[in-house]
Amino acid sequence: MSLRFGPDGKPNGPGRFPHLRIKPTPPRVDPHAKAPPGLPKNFYDNDWYQSLDQIERRKLDAQEAVDLSFPKMIIWSVLHLSIHIASNQASSVLQNASNMSDCKLIARCHLEIQP
Fold it and tell me: Which residue ranges are recorded for the region named Disordered (predicted)?
């Protein structure tokens, strides 16, 4: 709030004052809104996409699905930081790994980082 006003006590520029945003419950959804065409297939809800007929799918022009997983280097960097912040965080990540390859990657990174 202090950055909103200049030294003369006047607002620094146009615009609304900062305020708390409260999400409506239930969320506002426009049932008549059209899905944006041309997105990768995995950007659409799978159940909804499967409910479309062939003509609707053609109009939607969904592209090939894209890989949304994090690169291994990003995972390694996060683990590296976690291990240096608190070693118990790394063991928690290891316990919550989603599959065996995640466990192997985490364990390998943990061993490489150890002093």
Answer: 1-38
Which of 67, 58, 21, 62 has its CA nearest to residue 45? 62
The identity of residue 10, as a single letter, is: K
Asked if the structure places residue 7 within a domain, the reply is no
| Domain span holding position 60 | 36-66
In the chain the first and final C-alpha atoms are separated, in Å, by: 45
Q: Nearest CA to 65 among 35, 36, 43?
A: 43
Query: For residues 25 and 49, what is the distance between their CA atoms, to the nearest angstrom?
Result: 26
User: What's the half-sphere exposure (Cβ side, CA atoms, 13 Å) at 69?
Assistant: 7
Q: What is the pLDDT of residues 67-77, one digit of tens each?
A: 998 888 888 88
Give pTM, 2 decimals.
Answer: 0.46
